[in-house]
Write a structure and sequence with these properties.
The structure is a homodimer.
Chain A: E1 2-6, E2 13-18, H1 25-28, E3 36-42, H2 46-55, E4 61-67, H3 76-88, E5 96-101, H4 103-115, E6 121-126, H5 129-135, E7 140-145, E8 148-155, E9 160-164, H6 173-190, H7 192-206, H8 210-230, H9 245-255, H10 262-279, H11 285-297, E10 305-306, H12 310-318, E11 323-324, E12 327-328, E13 330-335, E14 338-342, H13 347-357, E15 358-359
Parallel strand pairs in A: 2-9, 3-4, 3-5, 5-6, 6-9, 10-15
Antiparallel strand pairs in A: 1-2, 7-8, 11-12, 13-14
Amino acid sequence: MKTVNIDLGDRSYQIRIADGLMHQSSELLPWVSGRQVVIITNEIVAPLYLQQVKESLQGKQIFEIILPDGEHIKTLQTAESIFDRLLGIPCDRKATLIALGGGVIGDMVGFAAACYQRGVAFIQIPTTLLAQVDSSVGGKTAVNHPRGKNMIGAFYQPVRVIADTRSLLTLDDRQFASGVAEVIKYGLINDIEFFEWLEKNIDRVMNKERDALGYIIECSCLNKARIVEQDERESGVRALLNLGHTFGHAIEAGFGYGKWLHGEAVAMGMVIAAQMSYQLGWLSETALLRTKSLIKKATLPTEPFAGLTKANMLDLMKLDKKVEDGNLKLILLEDIGKAVISSEYDHSVLHSTVDFFVID
Amino acid sequence: MKTVNIDLGDRSYQIRIADGLMHQSSELLPWVSGRQVVIITNEIVAPLYLQQVKESLQGKQIFEIILPDGEHIKTLQTAESIFDRLLGIPCDRKATLIALGGGVIGDMVGFAAACYQRGVAFIQIPTTLLAQVDSSVGGKTAVNHPRGKNMIGAFYQPVRVIADTRSLLTLDDRQFASGVAEVIKYGLINDIEFFEWLEKNIDRVMNKERDALGYIIECSCLNKARIVEQDERESGVRALLNLGHTFGHAIEAGFGYGKWLHGEAVAMGMVIAAQMSYQLGWLSETALLRTKSLIKKATLPTEPFAGLTKANMLDLMKLDKKVEDGNLKLILLEDIGKAVISSEYDHSVLHSTVDFFVID
């Protein structure tokens, strides 16, 4: 059993990482303070894990909400349908919500928990690698808007996160690789040792070897925790975590949410950020090539793609939450393990880099 | 000029109280950190004050959203229409929202500010007495749901509150009295001196004498601040502020939002709470009569009313956010200036009291 402590004052909580955790009542029950608990999951995850989570909650009044699968449900309308159901029960302010699923479920349920009666407790049981290494730390919850991803949301911390590595064994390869993109991201941002470990062990990771899974989840959560603890509400250093995301969000939105998986778009975004950093003269060619190579070994996209215009892509990037007073801040690389936040870059290089990756 | 400091760590802010504040750029501009500012108001308030607020914001990019008047707009749908507009501009995360209007505008804009891009700054310019003495302290923001008032919301603090007493002069008598209900509430909860001052000066208040207005707003905000500072997220003592509100919310919801003004329903709720406290043997007859008499002098309802059944009323009360694990906590009185939170009351007295006030 591995434990990562997220230290945020009175909003602190623990992430527990191990194989088979969902079966353990002692990992769940103490964190359900009232008598009502509502498990919110989706059609794909429910047949796999809903029953065992319910068994681990015996003695509580258990309700369930099963949503369709997919990014398209991450809307204010779905939030409303959750509120309708919670008020129909009716759930009081002591009720606990459980998010059982991937990042979409985590973001959606976290936002619903943040807003229901101005905030009820929620537990995250992330069942994808992406959710275990990313959405389980930091309390970012949100829904999408037609004009942009995660535009409506809240910073709201769970009371507990249960990362059961066994759930990764049922994950399809594309979903799994999408999670590996975020794992690589932590190495690129601030942890060259972890990046080098990944270079050596990427095959073991892609084969889902149990100890490799435990290690990458722990390292990723620790890396993210160190940054989030310094800057919970993203007024500064936390923006580093968005490496690859400004480009990635534009790709996801441009193709329509769901066509590219989030991690795929982030992987592509990291390659674009590395290429741009290289063209600015900030990143060495070796570092660029190592970055692309590791991402490629994780079966993630690294090559120019068709389907968006340069103008599309740049327009969509302007909607990014890192635009401040008209300036787009980008997360760029000075080295592997050294990301920087900057709005002081040559805009022609941004244009030429995007132009290179987007095949009109 | 009076200033009330709301001390909530990194979420601290000041309430400024004086006549003509809206005209003063120096009271607004320093609190707008980005270049974009969006004033959100309604059809009634806009013709009265929008122009002067815009003049006080010269040099900024000013946008305006004018909503219809009334409690019926306090919905998730209106929040969505605000998000649509903000993203259409598009507003970035440095944008500041200004809530110019009464409690409905304050709650609505506060909630939109809490959720837009996971939180942007907002300034409150409350133009009703109710909003100046109540929603300006404590950061409760919310929208209504058909099943209950303020069921969807967030605790989210403004960066500044500007209470311009001049705006109360254009308020109609019913709206003004509705605010006085919340003022009386602070005396009842925890401040017998203030209650006694109100008994002596209620005519000056109802005549809107300027120094009386400044005094009741300051006293009310100080009283509320003292409680909120102890318990920002209402896990304990803050519930005292809901004196009269559990009954009041049931009345508002039962009749349909907007039929009774919020303060009218709270006034009636305080009378019901006082009567119930008297019948429980907790409150003296003298204190009950003084309470009813002051509320009546403020031209607020104190008598039994037709239009709801006892069953309606009790059902609606069960949806209150103070229900925890099936127990309804009520705010009751042991004396003037001494409110208590209790779920240890004789339920037959609750039933008989509601029965007395509801004329079937």
